[in-house]
Fold this sequence. Notes:
Layout: E1 4-10, H1 16-33, E2 37-46, E3 49-58, E4 63-70, H2 73-89, E5 99-101, H3 109-116
Parallel strand pairs: 1-2
Antiparallel strand pairs: 2-3, 3-4, 4-5
Amino acid sequence: MSSHTELTFRGMPHDVSLEAAIDRWVWRLEDLMGAEIQTTAIIERAGRRTIVSVMVTLDHGTSVAAASEHVDGYVAVSNAFRDVRHALTASAAPSRHRKLVAPAQNYSWTWLASWWRQ
């Protein structure tokens, strides 16, 4: 399968390791769902913390968005993708420490980013 990933870094230099972590999560989700997925991820630095916002769209139109914040960028990536995975499989509720929006068709990234900072 061939997924499409769009990755944006804000307030920090491009990090190949974080990009590889995102690619691994995309491959896992693609394998789990058995469908091509389109992923848009924004990684930004806010002081010492890293904020990761992810929107995943399956080839049949289902969309899920999640955001996570953590001091460790890899933990933020993992938390955001875990929340996406849980929403797609409907196997668990989101953690009380992270915010989840599903479905994401009606939300813009600007709105999601402003909502996350509340």
